[in-house]
Amino acid sequence: TGSAMNDFHELRLDTRKWSPVQAMGAKAPGHRFCHVACVHGDSMYVFGGYDGSNRLNDFVEFHFGLNLLACDIPPSSLVQDLRSLVNNEEMSDIVFMVEDQPVYAHKILCMRCTYFRAMLTGGMSETRASEIVLQDVRHPIFLALLEYLYTDQCEIPLDIAMELFQAADQFGVERLKKICESKMLASINVENAATIFHAADVHNAKSLREKCLNFVLANFDPVTKSASFEEMGRTNVELVFEILQKR
Fold it and tell me: Which residues form the BTB domain (predicted)?
């Protein structure tokens, strides 16, 4: 009902008021109703409609001109720049020796890791050492740990998830530890369930331990026949007794 029109208004959500939009450029399209309109990017497209006498078949673009006042902002390079500092000798002020290989780092790591903060600011012998020897962690695993500390991101292939989980626990990096837990849970199967369960117990990962235990109980027969279950029995027979008691 009513008359076909060709006026164009905008609603300001902050003031809840309508106001007319003044068109510039080409001649405004004819009046119509029952048309289709869609906003995409900084334009509104109108197609077809009915002017009261004829069915219309035109296609019109209203360009809002928002880009006239905008500027292109390049994507942030912060993560890439921080990643480039991993094991970069330039401007490094601390050297770790891991598997007899130097790993260059920066004392700003103290802000990301309480383990390193205690080591480098707590009056320990490492505070004055030119090189700090780290034990019980492999070189590629430590580099992955550093990448996470610098960038808050880290690619975790399945084949290093367990070792990185153990390193995250060793150095007190709880969020990385949880990320590794999630990676391992996503890949749990009857062959590795006992290994993950044992690691969760050793490193006090309560949630991971509980979920692994539930998986073992739900798949008891194939898991107990696996090589990893046999190895767990040789290492910690108490875990085997716990599983048998809860079955």
Answer: 92-158
Tell me the C-alpha distance between 50 and 57, whole Å. Answer: 9
pLDDT in tens, 70-103: 677 889 999 999 999 999 999 899 999 999 999 9
- Statement to judge: residues 205 and 169 lie in one domain: no
List C-alpha distances in Å: 189 to 65, 163, 197, 241: 56, 18, 11, 21
Task: Assess whether 163 and 216 both reside in one domain.
Answer: no
Cβ atoms within 10 Å of 57's Cβ, excluding its own? 8
Q: Report residue 57: phi and psi, to 5°.
A: -135, 25
The β-bridge partners of 33 are 50
Q: Is residue 181 part of a domain?
A: no
Q: Which domain holds residue 60?
A: 9-69
Cβ-in-10-Å burial (0-12, 13-18, 19+) of 246 comes to exposed
Residues 55 and 83 in one domain: no
Domain total in the chain: 3
pLDDT at 54: 86
Residue 183: pLDDT above 70? Answer: yes
Of 21 and 107, the structure prediction assigns the larger pLDDT to 107
Residue 66 CA to residue 155 CA, distance in Å, equals 39
